[in-house]
Amino acid sequence: MIRLSHVSRDFPRRGRALDDVTFSVEKGEFVFLTGHSGSGKSTTLRMLHMADRPTEGEVRVAGFSSKLTSDREIWKLRRRVGFVFQDFRLLPGRTARENVAFALEVTGTPRREIGPRTSRLLSQVGLSARTGALVEELSGGEQQRVSVARALANEPLVLLADEPTGNLDERSARGILELFRDLNASGMAVLMATHDLDLVRSISDVRTLELSGGRLVFDSGA
Amino acid sequence: MHAIREAIAGFRRAPLLTALSATMVGLALFVVGLFGVATYNLHEALSRIEDRVEVVAYVRDNALDEELRILEEDVMAMPEVVGVRYVSKDQALEAARRDLPEFEDLFAGLDTNPLPASMEVELASGARTPDVVARVAERMTLHPAVEDVRYGQEWVDRLFLLQNIGGIATLILGSAFAVVAALIIGTAIRIALFARREEIQVMRLVGATNGFIRRPFLLEGAITGALGGTLAAAATWGAWWGVSNAVFPLSWIPWSWVLAGIGAGAAFGLLASAVSIRRHLQEI
Ligand SMILES: Nc1ncnc2c1ncn2[C@@H]1O[C@H](COP(=O)(O)OP(=O)(O)OP(=O)(O)O)[C@@H](O)[C@H]1O
Ligand SMILES: [Mg+2]
To answer: Is A187 exposed, middle or buried (0-12, 13-18, 19+ CB in 10 A)?
Structure first.
């Protein structure tokens, strides 16, 4: 499903941000990616939906190789991989419903399917009651749920989340994590970067990877 | 559908810039349009003149019948030539008396006929170009029987020269406006791209194709260009109407030319926006 083989990433002035990282995530797995600020979590996740590419090594995601996939083909990968950010990245001035429907519209979903599918996605993330609210009117936790619903729009095989609970209070954070667990239970792989160790420790049966200075220093499942 | 909606939204966002872009495209095509009207009318005039373009070879008084026969055969053998008419000295004088009655006294006082006999060559209607005329004339000059050849060369040449000068002026002015138009369309598209930055980022994130992301902006460029083309057509028509009514009558260009002009505007707008998108989309 996801495989990094000896992946390194050098940035012009910064130097090596990822250093010979190798790991894989199987179908249906739930994995935490932890590490201090600057350890390379975001850089790793960016590789996984090819917003960035390795300087050395190879990344394979859902059958797409970082060495073979051209920029023109990235959209195919993006439809297999859902992505959630710390800051939600929702379109302001639009409702929860419009934000989710947008993802369906721009990926060519037939018009008459968009309505029902949007409703289904919003109820899947527990937001059926607030679909008509503008995103500005929603709480952080609710906004993150909208962004998860959007990430699920194309029925991805894997959900990547970069500090999805970073902007949320503990209660909302826990809610989002529960949502991820539910999605994982229904078969979706989840890779979640976080430095909230309390959150990580609150769950015992989840594999944890730790990055430090761009190197993979711990893998509980290896 | 999405692309059309978004392109219209783009115009609403920057109506002034759209108007400016369309105006510049319009100016560029207006120059071309004026040239088109001029060329079209010149061609009409030329083809009218061309009907009368013939090559006349004046024959030496002492030319032998045999030489004249060879000349006639040789000229007739050229594929562009459809007929040759021999005008004798007497016929020439008679024609002069008829055409120029005011010189009757002069003609009457003549002891000898000063007018030369001539060979009038009629060219095929498609062959009355400066090239062909000059070639036929040159060939005839080589014959010993021929004294001199005339073919209204000067002003056929002059008309073609005029057309060439017009063409060059159009090219220079038109390209200057076109460059400015391309720059403004590029800027408009760039502004539109940045105004929709967040949406574009989300589109990429969820897997919209590059084509889908570009389409509204391409359409915006094409519509702006077509708008400019329409503007140019209207301005050209206005200029034509003014000249036709106030100065001298001119023919209006065929409507297929007008359509081609609007199409060219659209293609130009499409191209200008494509270039701008290529340059700026990756910055987003
Ligand atoms: N585009 C870039 N250019 C230069 N350096 C970069 C770039 N992106 C990331 N880095 C550097 O790479 C290192 C790893 O960054 P990354 O964002 O992956 O860390 P992180 O683990 O996500 O940190 P945080 O927990 O603060 O989000 C950092 O030192 C960062 O400065
Ligand atoms: Mg990060």
So the answer is: exposed
Separation of A9 CA from ligand 2 center, angstroms? 15
Residues 6 or more apart from A134 whose CB is under 8 A from it?
A92, A93, A94, A95
Instruction: List CB contacts of A112: < 8 A, sequence separation 6 or more.
Output: none
d(CA B111, CA B276): 82
Query: What is the structure's pLDDT at B4?
Result: 83
How far does CA A217 lie from the centroid of its chain?
22
Best residue of A94, A99, A106, A160 to probe chain B, by most B CBs closer than 10 Å: A106
pLDDT of residue B156: 66
Residues of chain A with pLDDT under 50: none
Q: What residue ranges do the domains of chain A occupy?
A: 90-155
ipTM: 0.92
Given this model, what pLDDT does residue A189 score?
96
Q: Which of A18, A42, A160 to mutate to test the pocket of ligand 1 (most atoms within 8 A of CB)?
A: A42
The closest residue, in CA terms, to atom 10 on ligand 1 is: A17
Continuous segment of H or E residues that includes residue A8: strand A2-11
* pTM higher than 0.95: no
For testing contact with chain B, the best of A45, A75, A100, A154 (most B CBs within 10 A)? A75
Spatial CA neighbour of A153 closest among A215, A81, A214, A75: A81
The per-residue pLDDT for B155 is 65
Q: How many residue contacts between A and B have a Cβ separation below 8 Å?
A: 48
What structural domains and CATH numbers belong to chain B?
2-48+159-283 (no CATH), 54-150 (3.30.70.3040)
Q: Which of B199, B202, B209 sits opposite A75 (nearest CB)?
A: B209
Residues of chain B with pLDDT under 50: none
Question: Which of A85, A19, A2 is closest to A54 using CA atoms?
Answer: A19
